Amino acid sequence: MTIKAHFTQTNSMQSKLLLLFVLGFTFIFSACQNDKLIKRGDSVEVAYQKAMSFYEEENYSEAANAFDTVTRVGRGTEYGQDAQYYLAESYFKNNQF
């Protein structure tokens, strides 16, 4: 094996390992973020708390999506009524009026 072939093979292996590391890190980071998303089976209270978390972090786009879900699922409840208010506030603070 020539030096050039060895260097190319080693460099290729390092590139693959780096790619694998980056993909693994991205997967782990995105899995941690998914805990904030509303999941099927979450209670209205849990969904409302997750929506409020987005709102308090000033992530108004995600908050609006979450509050929209709470208003549909929690229709007729106190959480549903409060979610309607915060849904409007989220749209307003995101300049969507």
Please supply descriptive tags for the structure shown above.
97 residues; 0% strand
What features would you describe in this structure?
The chain has 97 residues and is mostly helical. It folds into two domains: 1-35; 37-97, no CATH class. Helices cover 76% and strands 0% of the residues. The protein has helices spanning 3-33, 44-56, 60-73, 78-93.
- Number of beta-strand segments: 0
Note the run of SSEs as H and E: HHHH
Summed up, the helix count is 4
Task: Indicate the structural class.
Answer: mainly alpha
In the predicted model, the low-confidence regions spanning at least 5 consecutive residues are none
SSE inventory with pairings:
Elements: H1 3-33, H2 44-56, H3 60-73, H4 78-93
Helix pairs in contact: 2-3, 2-4, 3-4
Outline:
This protein is mainly α and 97 residues long.
